[in-house]
Specification:
With 80 residues, the chain is mostly helical. The chain has one domain. The longest helix is centred in the C-terminal third of the chain and has 18 residues.
């Protein structure tokens, strides 16, 4: 599997801070793992109900990063 590229991240999130892009890329995640992290964030109940185990490893780290992005968008005064 190929790791994420900067272009992959930009295609998903649009223009985001280079620090955020670097943090996402540093996970070594694949595009599939990024998609899985987004699925968990958007609607985790169906995933849990289908018996899918909780996210771990790179997917879990991506979820943390994406949650931080969401919090910063909701509260721009919050320090990065």
């Amino acid at each position: 599997m190929n790791p994420l590229t900067r272009d992959d991240v930009i295609n998903v999130f649009g223009q985001v801070d280079d620090i955020v892009v670097a943090e996402i890329l540093d996970t070594g995640a694949t595009p599939e793992e990024l998609a899985e992290a987004q699925a968990w964030l958007s609607n985790n109940e169906p995933l849990m109900n289908s018996g899918k185990p909780m996210a771990t490893g790179r997917v879990s780290r991506l979820i943390e990063i994406l949650e931080d992005i969401d919090e910063q968008v909701a509260d721009p005064e919050q320090p990065a």
